[in-house]
Structure formats: structure tokens, C-alpha cells
Specification:
It is a single chain. It is built from eight helices and seven strands, in the order H-E-H-E-H-E-H-E-H-E-H-E-H-H-E. It has a seven-stranded parallel sheet with strand order 3-4-2-5-6-1-7, sandwiched between helices. By secondary structure, it is of the alpha/beta class. 37% of the residues lie in helices and 17% in strands. The chain is globular, with a radius of gyration of 18 Å.
Length: 203
């Protein structure tokens, strides 16, 4: 008897697509909903920064904004380091990443869910499937490697019909990453020559 294998994923970055080609026979990709349209209630902001003033810009954003905030970084080491720096700066913060044991992960999530910690610093792996309705702001301290992960990240805010904000701290080196994200979000702009437009703040 023939076996049918199906794979389900919220996002399909290149490594997962390569995996599907290896183990699936002549697969057909079926998308439910739009893969390039984030929630319309999310206000997206771009802030031009340098490597030296990036942390100070982050502190400014944390001071200006009210409510719960999730900050995305690239690595587990970066998550622990940034969380410590924020605690040293007086912010109620904890880190969430893939190396945490399940019990510790539950403690961190519950503390954030119950508003004991206002800020969570997380990697992409750790935040997958995270559904906490009161997250009001998503700050991308490090931009994601995969454009589809950006949609996943900003989807952590504006839950349950609420408004939300996504703040992106962009260095010059992040330019190609943002253009790839913009191409995914606004494919028509690249046909019209209007790519890269959005609300920006200077360095």
C-alpha cells in the first residue's frame, strides 16, 4: 500500500523546504490564508541605528512604551546577555531560548503571562506558538535570517483583536534582510519600484 506523508508548518524557511524535497515525493504546497500579509492592526516602525548606539535606542523604546514587550534576538547566548544587561539597567526581564529545560521554560512563560516580568527576550525557536494576548510590542533587536520568520515574530503581538507595534532596529548590515522582508510583505511594490518605503526614524 502506498503511504501519504504530509508536513505542516507555520512558516517554510529554506531549510524546511529542502527537508521536504528530501523526504516527500512530488509534494504540493498548500497555503491557508496569505503568507505575506501580517496582521493589519500591527504598526511597523523602522529605526536606523549603529552597532554602538543600538542598545541605547532599545532603552529609549522600553522607556517610551507601556505594556508587555517581547524582544527578538538571533541566539540563545545573545538572549541571556541582553536580558542580563536589561536587568542591570533596571528592567524586569527574563530570557527565553531553546536551551531552557521544559520546567524552566514554563516558569519563564508563566511569569511573563502573569505580568511578573514586563519584558521577555527570546529567540525565534523559543517563541514559536507563544500565545500571550497582552503582548503589546515586538522589538526586533536582531533581524531574522528568514523573511517568513518576521511575520511569525510580529504575530506575537496584536493578539485577540488588540492593537500592537513592531519596532525594527536596523543597522546598515541589516539592509539586505529588510529588503527581503519588504519583498515578501509588499511584492507589488517591487513591480512598481516603490520598495523599502515605511515609517523610519534616523540614527
Amino acid at each position: 500500500a502506498k503511504r501519504q506523508t504530509m508536513m505542516f508548518s507555520a512558516t517554510l524557511p529554506p531549510n524546511i523546504l529542502n527537508l521536504s524535497q528530501k523526504y516527500l515525493t512530488d509534494p504540493v504546497r498548500i497555503s491557508v490564508g496569505s503568507v505575506n500579509t501580517p496582521i493589519t492592526k500591527i504598526k511597523q516602525e523602522l529605526i536606523q541605528v549603529t552597532d554602538t548606539n543600538k542598545y541605547n535606542h532599545l532603552l529609549d523604546q522600553l522607556t517610551q512604551r507601556e505594556g508587555s514587550i517581547i524582544i527578538f534576538v538571533k541566539t540563545k547566548v545573545g538572549a541571556e546577555k541582553l536580558a542580563k544587561e536589561l536587568r542591570d539597567s533596571g528592567h524586569n526581564t527574563n530570557a527565553m531560548h531553546g536551551d531552557l529545560h521544559q520546567n524552566k521554560r514554563k516558569v519563564v512563560i508563566n511569569a511573563f503571562r502573569n505580568r511578573k516580568h514586563r519584558i521577555m527576550v527570546a529567540t525565534d525557536v523559543a517563541a514559536r506558538g507563544l500565545d500571550i494576548p497582552h503582548i503589546e510590542h515586538d522589538i526586533n533587536y536582531d533581524m531574522p535570517q528568514c523573511p517568513e520568520d518576521y511575520i511569525h515574530r510580529i504575530g506575537r503581538t496584536a493578539r485577540a483583536g488588540n492593537d500592537g507595534a513592531a519596532v525594527n532596529l536596523l543597522t546598515r548590515a541589516d539592509g539586505p534582510k529588510w529588503r527581503a522582508i519588504d519583498r515578501l510583505l509588499n511584492p507589488d511594490n517591487f513591480l512598481k519600484g516603490n520598495e523599502g518605503k515605511g515609517e523610519r526614524h534616523g540614527e
